[in-house]
UniProtKB/TrEMBL annotation:
It comes from the Bacteria. This is Cobalamin-independent methionine synthase MetE C-terminal/archaeal domain-containing protein. GO terms for molecular function: 5-methyltetrahydropteroyltriglutamate-homocysteine S-methyltransferase activity; zinc ion binding. It comes from Lentibacillus kapialis. Pfam families: Meth_synt_2. SUPFAM superfamilies: UROD/MetE-like. GO terms for biological process: methionine biosynthetic process. Residues 5-203 form the Cobalamin-independent methionine synthase MetE C-terminal/archaeal domain. The lineage of its organism: Bacteria, Bacillati, Bacillota, Bacilli, Bacillales.
Amino acid sequence: MREIENEEIERIVEKQKKLGLNTVTDGELRRAWWHFDFLENLDGVEGFDTDTGLQFHQQQTKAHAIKVTGKLDFSNHPMIEDFKFLKSIAGPWAKMTIPSPSMLRLRGSIEQGIYDNPEEFTHDLANAYKKAIQAFYNAGCRYLQLDDTAWAFLASEEEREKMRAQGTNPDKLSALYAETINKAVEDRPDDLTITMHICRGNFRST
Protein backbone atom coordinates (compact mmCIF):
# COMPACT_ATOMS: atom_id res chain seq x y z
CA MET A 1 0.00 0.00 0.00
CA ARG A 2 2.81 2.38 0.88
CA GLU A 3 4.42 1.85 -2.52
CA ILE A 4 1.14 2.67 -4.29
CA GLU A 5 0.72 5.80 -2.17
CA ASN A 6 4.28 6.86 -2.97
CA GLU A 7 3.70 6.45 -6.70
CA GLU A 8 0.49 8.48 -6.64
CA ILE A 9 2.06 11.21 -4.52
CA GLU A 10 5.00 11.44 -6.92
CA ARG A 11 2.50 11.79 -9.77
CA ILE A 12 0.50 14.62 -8.19
CA VAL A 13 3.63 16.43 -6.98
CA GLU A 14 4.98 16.45 -10.52
CA LYS A 15 1.63 17.75 -11.78
CA GLN A 16 1.66 20.59 -9.23
CA LYS A 17 5.19 21.53 -10.24
CA LYS A 18 4.23 21.62 -13.92
CA LEU A 19 1.32 23.90 -13.08
CA GLY A 20 3.78 26.29 -11.48
CA LEU A 21 2.40 26.16 -7.95
CA ASN A 22 4.56 27.90 -5.37
CA THR A 23 3.80 25.28 -2.72
CA VAL A 24 3.28 21.56 -3.18
CA THR A 25 1.41 19.06 -0.99
CA ASP A 26 0.95 15.30 -1.07
CA GLY A 27 -2.78 15.80 -1.60
CA GLU A 28 -3.35 14.16 1.79
CA LEU A 29 -3.54 10.91 -0.18
CA ARG A 30 -2.37 8.81 2.75
CA ARG A 31 -5.25 9.98 4.94
CA ALA A 32 -8.72 8.59 5.48
CA TRP A 33 -9.68 11.80 7.29
CA TRP A 34 -8.16 15.26 6.92
CA HIS A 35 -8.22 15.80 10.70
CA PHE A 36 -8.70 12.52 12.58
CA ASP A 37 -5.62 10.86 11.07
CA PHE A 38 -3.39 13.50 12.62
CA LEU A 39 -5.28 13.93 15.88
CA GLU A 40 -5.68 10.27 16.78
CA ASN A 41 -1.93 9.79 16.45
CA LEU A 42 -1.24 12.32 19.18
CA ASP A 43 -0.31 10.73 22.49
CA GLY A 44 -3.43 10.47 24.62
CA VAL A 45 -5.93 10.42 21.73
CA GLU A 46 -7.71 7.36 20.33
CA GLY A 47 -10.02 6.82 17.39
CA PHE A 48 -13.12 4.67 17.71
CA ASP A 49 -16.11 3.59 15.66
CA THR A 50 -19.50 5.16 16.35
CA ASP A 51 -23.10 4.35 15.45
CA THR A 52 -23.44 7.20 12.95
CA GLY A 53 -21.16 9.53 11.04
CA LEU A 54 -21.22 13.30 10.64
CA GLN A 55 -24.20 14.50 8.61
CA PHE A 56 -23.70 16.73 5.59
CA HIS A 57 -26.21 17.63 2.90
CA GLN A 58 -27.54 14.25 1.72
CA GLN A 59 -24.22 12.68 2.69
CA GLN A 60 -22.90 11.08 5.86
CA THR A 61 -19.29 10.38 6.75
CA LYS A 62 -17.96 7.09 8.04
CA ALA A 63 -19.01 6.32 11.61
CA HIS A 64 -15.82 7.33 13.39
CA ALA A 65 -14.77 9.74 16.13
CA ILE A 66 -11.91 10.52 18.49
CA LYS A 67 -11.56 10.83 22.24
CA VAL A 68 -8.93 11.92 24.73
CA THR A 69 -8.02 8.92 26.88
CA GLY A 70 -4.75 10.12 28.42
CA LYS A 71 -2.46 13.10 28.82
CA LEU A 72 -1.77 14.85 25.53
CA ASP A 73 1.70 14.86 23.99
CA PHE A 74 3.49 14.47 20.66
CA SER A 75 5.96 11.66 19.94
CA ASN A 76 6.65 9.17 17.15
CA HIS A 77 3.95 10.61 14.91
CA PRO A 78 3.71 8.83 11.52
CA MET A 79 3.10 12.06 9.60
CA ILE A 80 6.68 13.15 10.16
CA GLU A 81 7.80 10.33 7.88
CA ASP A 82 5.01 11.24 5.46
CA PHE A 83 6.39 14.76 5.24
CA LYS A 84 9.97 13.57 4.81
CA PHE A 85 8.90 11.63 1.73
CA LEU A 86 7.10 14.68 0.34
CA LYS A 87 10.17 16.82 1.01
CA SER A 88 12.40 14.34 -0.78
CA ILE A 89 10.45 14.73 -4.02
CA ALA A 90 9.07 18.27 -3.73
CA GLY A 91 12.14 20.00 -2.33
CA PRO A 92 11.79 23.50 -0.83
CA TRP A 93 8.21 23.83 -2.13
CA ALA A 94 6.90 21.12 0.21
CA LYS A 95 3.90 22.26 2.25
CA MET A 96 2.41 20.32 5.18
CA THR A 97 -1.21 20.56 6.29
CA ILE A 98 -2.50 19.50 9.71
CA PRO A 99 -5.71 20.25 11.63
CA SER A 100 -5.70 23.19 14.01
CA PRO A 101 -5.71 22.37 17.73
CA SER A 102 -9.27 23.74 17.77
CA MET A 103 -10.38 20.59 15.99
CA LEU A 104 -9.59 18.38 18.97
CA ARG A 105 -11.84 20.55 21.11
CA LEU A 106 -14.56 20.53 18.45
CA ARG A 107 -14.53 16.85 17.50
CA GLY A 108 -12.93 15.09 20.46
CA SER A 109 -14.56 14.05 23.71
CA ILE A 110 -12.54 13.73 26.92
CA GLU A 111 -12.84 10.70 29.16
CA GLN A 112 -13.82 11.51 32.71
CA GLY A 113 -10.94 12.09 35.09
CA ILE A 114 -8.32 12.79 32.41
CA TYR A 115 -8.58 16.58 32.38
CA ASP A 116 -10.73 17.99 35.16
CA ASN A 117 -8.87 21.30 34.82
CA PRO A 118 -9.54 23.08 31.47
CA GLU A 119 -6.33 25.10 31.84
CA GLU A 120 -4.27 21.91 32.01
CA PHE A 121 -5.95 20.63 28.85
CA THR A 122 -5.18 23.90 27.05
CA HIS A 123 -1.56 23.78 28.21
CA ASP A 124 -1.00 20.16 27.15
CA LEU A 125 -2.75 20.60 23.80
CA ALA A 126 -0.73 23.70 22.95
CA ASN A 127 2.47 22.00 24.10
CA ALA A 128 1.78 18.93 21.96
CA TYR A 129 1.36 21.21 18.96
CA LYS A 130 4.55 23.08 19.78
CA LYS A 131 6.39 19.77 19.65
CA ALA A 132 4.63 18.86 16.40
CA ILE A 133 5.58 22.16 14.80
CA GLN A 134 9.20 21.73 15.83
CA ALA A 135 9.26 18.13 14.60
CA PHE A 136 7.98 19.13 11.16
CA TYR A 137 10.51 21.98 11.09
CA ASN A 138 13.34 19.59 11.96
CA ALA A 139 12.15 17.37 9.10
CA GLY A 140 12.60 20.29 6.70
CA CYS A 141 9.16 21.88 6.72
CA ARG A 142 9.14 25.64 6.15
CA TYR A 143 5.46 26.04 5.26
CA LEU A 144 2.84 24.62 7.62
CA GLN A 145 -0.90 25.12 7.22
CA LEU A 146 -3.40 24.68 10.06
CA ASP A 147 -6.84 23.67 8.80
CA ASP A 148 -9.77 24.75 10.96
CA THR A 149 -13.55 24.41 10.59
CA ALA A 150 -14.28 25.26 14.24
CA TRP A 151 -14.53 28.98 13.53
CA ALA A 152 -17.37 28.45 11.05
CA PHE A 153 -19.53 27.13 13.88
CA LEU A 154 -18.78 30.25 15.90
CA ALA A 155 -19.79 32.44 12.96
CA SER A 156 -23.23 30.81 12.79
CA GLU A 157 -25.87 32.24 15.11
CA GLU A 158 -27.79 28.98 14.84
CA GLU A 159 -24.77 27.04 16.08
CA ARG A 160 -24.09 29.60 18.79
CA GLU A 161 -27.63 29.13 20.08
CA LYS A 162 -27.05 25.37 20.20
CA MET A 163 -23.90 25.97 22.23
CA ARG A 164 -25.74 28.19 24.69
CA ALA A 165 -28.47 25.57 25.06
CA GLN A 166 -25.78 23.06 26.01
CA GLY A 167 -24.29 25.43 28.58
CA THR A 168 -21.34 26.64 26.49
CA ASN A 169 -20.53 30.32 26.11
CA PRO A 170 -19.50 30.76 22.45
CA ASP A 171 -17.55 33.95 23.18
CA LYS A 172 -15.47 32.21 25.84
CA LEU A 173 -14.99 29.25 23.51
CA SER A 174 -13.67 31.45 20.71
CA ALA A 175 -11.25 33.08 23.15
CA LEU A 176 -10.10 29.62 24.23
CA TYR A 177 -9.56 28.55 20.61
CA ALA A 178 -7.47 31.67 19.97
CA GLU A 179 -5.47 31.22 23.17
CA THR A 180 -4.61 27.61 22.33
CA ILE A 181 -3.55 28.42 18.77
CA ASN A 182 -1.47 31.41 19.88
CA LYS A 183 0.32 29.34 22.51
CA ALA A 184 0.94 26.55 20.01
CA VAL A 185 2.70 28.80 17.49
CA GLU A 186 4.37 31.33 19.80
CA ASP A 187 7.82 29.67 19.72
CA ARG A 188 7.90 28.83 16.02
CA PRO A 189 11.22 29.34 14.21
CA ASP A 190 11.57 32.68 12.42
CA ASP A 191 11.91 31.08 8.99
CA LEU A 192 8.82 28.88 9.36
CA THR A 193 5.66 30.19 7.71
CA ILE A 194 2.45 29.10 9.44
CA THR A 195 -0.89 29.88 7.80
CA MET A 196 -4.49 29.02 8.62
CA HIS A 197 -7.16 27.72 6.30
CA ILE A 198 -10.65 28.38 7.68
CA CYS A 199 -13.77 26.97 6.05
CA ARG A 200 -17.14 25.44 6.91
CA GLY A 201 -15.96 21.95 6.00
CA ASN A 202 -17.37 19.61 3.38
CA PHE A 203 -17.73 15.94 2.55
CA ARG A 204 -17.69 14.80 -1.07
CA SER A 205 -18.26 18.43 -2.12
CA THR A 206 -21.50 18.79 -0.11
